[in-house]
Design goal:
The complex is a heterodimer of chains A (158) and B (506). Chain A contains seven helices and four strands; from the N terminus they run ααααβααβββα. Chain A is an alpha+beta fold. By secondary structure, chain B is α/β, with parallel strands linked by helices. Helix content of chain B is 43%, strand content 14%. In chain B, the strands form four sheets. In chain B, strands 2-1-3-4-5 form a five-stranded mixed beta sheet, with helices on one face. A five-stranded mixed beta sheet of chain B has the order 13-12-16-14-15. Classes of the chains: A alpha+beta (158), B alpha/beta (506). At the A-B interface, helix 2, helix 4 and helix 5 of A face helix 1, strand 8, strand 12, strand 16 and helix 17 of B. The complex binds flavin mononucleotide, iron/sulfur cluster (SF4) and FE2/S2 (inorganic) cluster (2 copies).
């Protein structure tokens, strides 16, 4: 998830697309592979995918834009996802999330000006018996309180 | 010395990896012979990381919650134990059928799985005719645990009776409901059970291919399930010749992309095909025209993971548990503001009050319980006056609620029900697939209308009621159709929270 990476070339993207072509319903696996490698779905990937799957670019774009997971621009260096769902709210999750947004000076899905942190909402991480819950660069954190949140944000460079 | 440290997401989120590492380091430094097993969770989340030390007599003593600082005492025997893990009251009073092995075995060790009853269901099914397999599931009374409670045997029979060159078994592991984590726990703690259940389903309906559609928010489950599928293939449990039966079944794990609506079965099928996750109109039923237009069983993780124990012990044994038409057990997930949160598998029929006041021990905050939401974001908010309701399909329906995927989220008296109603509408607006106007636009209007109530607009409550009616009547799926449940139940049962701001405005 790096904003400073150069845009990938067709040669770099092609193998990640071809790897999935034998699958039934290959589009989501392709998009996951591209996003994992490049932190987003590069604009140039859309026509490569459309050609490989024999569908229109509009169809590819329609799928990319439907799903919350796929980004068209890279995230910040660290991605903090905070659970907004009901069980976490019952443990004070909403106030915690508000505090994080205020401290970073961004809205949901926003990235701090220095590119350090992107903050995303998530609707349940399956940690509903130990909320409020968060995910920091893919690592799960339970029972997040103000202090723990402070540590998380500091470590991420806020 | 054998030490169990869970690899479960909740245990990890509370520090289990660091504890496992500290145990390894300390054992090495002290020259101790320690075998660390990363097991699933026992489901007592308030005790996680819950570490177990196995003694020579086979008894596993529990310690928890364990932090890195506790590790030296754990290894030199001076740490205080909670006693044998299976005697902890929360655990001892459960009926564990689906979750019998979860937390007990090494999740990726097939030999361990078999030693604890694994594969005996599949072996029995292999010796049966497909029609008899379907009948056994029907006789067990198993109903879909994904939410709708549709009889699993009937669904399988439809697919069985529909001729096709290729059929599919698709496991719905999208588990998007807040307050639910049973699918996650079984996939992390006993993945072979799900694989075995899918293989039995394949034999029953004549499907040779399966997919698990697993949400991307569950990275640990994705890793464990992928490893389990490989191990199952290597052991001949999957492949061209399932356990030497001469019949084929193989499967693949597919990862979702963060859309709640993709838990709806037809949206899921579109997503799996690589399309936008828009809901399809029914008919055709997925059982007749499902994945790629072929007959497809779509079942929830827990429905499929319960199939092996039904075949191991027999349909009658399973059907003996439960209440009325709610047969067998259900893994109740106790979540939110509770003292003892976690997974509690029990026969259908336990009154809500017992689950909340007794099993869950009331709130974590120590304040009174104000409301519980059962069945995820589309479930009703229930006040204390409804707590005598037995936990079962028809009984909840009678209260204008639903048990859904059996998640129970508890709120103390600090909750503002107007805010929760607003959140329900907001969630529907964010997650709507966009196909129906009442859902896509109605939910946005719902948020605005609730904001008007908060500002003291006296006409707004009636408007909200009308809007909810339109959503109920005009939505294709339960996202738009049931969002009125949490909204209207909040308004009906907790009018003060909707009036307070109005008074302030007057
Ligand atoms: C908006 C929406 C979300 C759903 N999410 C899930 C889910 O995450 N998991 C699930 O098993 N069923 C979910 N369902 C129910 C499925 O459509 C379907 O009924 C279920 O997968 C069938 O399996 P079962 O009979 O084993 O329950 C959802 C339904 C709706 C309307
Ligand atoms: S009710 Fe909402 S989510 Fe369901 S099909 Fe209609 S628009 Fe899509
Ligand atoms: S509601 Fe936050 S983790 Fe489930
Ligand atoms: S399109 Fe579904 S209600 Fe209008």
């Amino acid at each position: 998830m790096r904003q400073d990476l150069p845009q990938p070339t067709a040669g770099e993207m092609q193998p990640l697309i071809e790897r999935h072509l034998q699958k039934e319903g290959p589009l989501l696996p392709i998009l996951h592979s591209l996003q994992e490698a490049f932190g987003h779905i590069p604009q140039a990937a859309v026509s490569l995918i459309a050609d490989a799957l024999n569908i229109t670019r509009a169809e590819v774009h329609g799928v990319v834009s439907f799903y919350h997971d796929f980004r068209d621009v890279p995230a910040g260096r660290h991605v903090v996802k905070i659970c907004r769902a009901e069980a976490c709210q019952s443990m004070g999750g909403a106030a915690l999330a508000d505090a994080a947004l205020e401290r970073l000076g961004v809205a949901w899905h926003g990235t701090t000006a220095d590119g350090a942190i992107t903050i995303e909402p998530v609707y349940c991480l399956g940690l509903c018996a130990c909320g409020p819950a968060a995910m920091v660069d893919g690592e799960l954190v339970g029972r997040v309180d103000a202090e723990r949140l402070d540590t998380i944000l500091k470590e991420a460079g806020a | 010395m054998k030490i169990y440290v869970p690899l479960d997401s909740a245990a990890k989120a509370l520090g289990a990896d660091a504890v496992a590492e500290a145990i390894r380091d300390a054992a090495q430094a002290g020259g101790k012979d320690v075998q660390i097993v990363r097991n699933g969770s026992r489901g007592m989340i308030w005790l996680e990381p819950l570490v177990e030390i196995e003694h020579d007599d086979g008894v596993r003593l529990a310690y928890g919650p364990v932090s890195v600082a506790d590790v030296p005492a754990l290894l030199d025997g001076s740490a205080e134990t909670l006693g044998p893990v299976e005697e902890i009251p929360f655990f001892a009073r459960q009926t564990r059928l689906t979750f019998a092995r979860c937390g007990v075995i090494d999740p990726l060790d097939i030999a361990d799985y078999e030693a604890h009853g694994g594969l005996s269901g599949l072996r029995r099914a292999i010796a049966m005719t497909p029609a008899d397999i379907v009948q056994e599931v029907t006789d067990s009374g198993l109903r879909g645990r994904g939410g709708a409670g549709f009889p699993t045997g009937i669904k399988w029979k439809t697919v069985h009776d529909t001729p096709a060159g290729q059929k599919y078994i698709i496991c719905n592991a999208d588990e998007g409901d807040s307050g639910t984590f049973a699918d996650r726990m079984i996939m992390e703690g006993d993945p072979f059970t799900l694989i075995e259940g899918m293989a039995i389903a394949g034999l029953a309906v004549g499907a040779t291919r399966g997919y698990v559609y697993l949400r991307s928010e569950y990275p640990v489950a994705i890793e464990v399930m992928n490893a389990a599928v490989e191990a199952a293939r290597a052991a001949g449990m999957l492949g061209d010749d399932v356990l030497g039966s001469g019949r084929a079944f193989d499967m693949e794990i597919r990862v979702g992309a963060g859309a709640y609506v993709c838990g709806e079965e037809t949206s899921l099928l579109n997503s799996l095909e690589g399309k936008r996750g828009v809901v399809r109109a029914k008919p055709p039923l997925p059982a007749i025209e499902g994945f790629l237009g072929r007959p497809t069983v779509v079942n929830n993780v827990i429905s499929l993971a319960t199939v092996p124990v039904i075949f191991e012990r027999g349909a009658a044994h399973y059907a003996d548990f439960g209440l009325g038409r709610s047969k067998g057990t259900t893994p109740v997930q106790i979540a939110g503001n509770v003292k003892y949160g976690g997974l509690f598998e029990t026969a259908f029929g336990m009154p809500l009050r017992e689950l909340i006041d007794d099993v869950a021990g009331g709130t974590a905050s120590g304040r009174p319980v104000k409301a519980v939401q059962v069945g995820g974001p589309l479930g009703a908010y229930m006040p204390r006056s409804t707590f005598d309701t037995p936990f079962a399909y028809e009984e909840f329906d009678g209260q204008g609620g639903l048990i859904g995927h059996a998640g129970v989220v508890v709120f103390d008296d600090s909750v503002d029900m107007l805010k929760m109603a607003r959140f329900a509408m907001e969630f529907c607006a964010v997650e709507s697939c966009g196909k129906c106007t009442p859902c896509r636009i109605g939910a946005v209007r719902g948020v605005e209308t609730i904001d008007r109530i908060a500002e003291g607009d006296a006409d707004a409550p009636e408007l909200l009621g009308d809007l909810c009616e339109t959503m109920t009547d005009g939505s294709l799926c339960a996202l738009g159709g049931l969002t009125p449940y949490p909204v209207m139940s909040a308004l009906r049962h907790f009018p003060d929270d909707f009036a307070r701001s109005r008074e302030a405005a007057e």
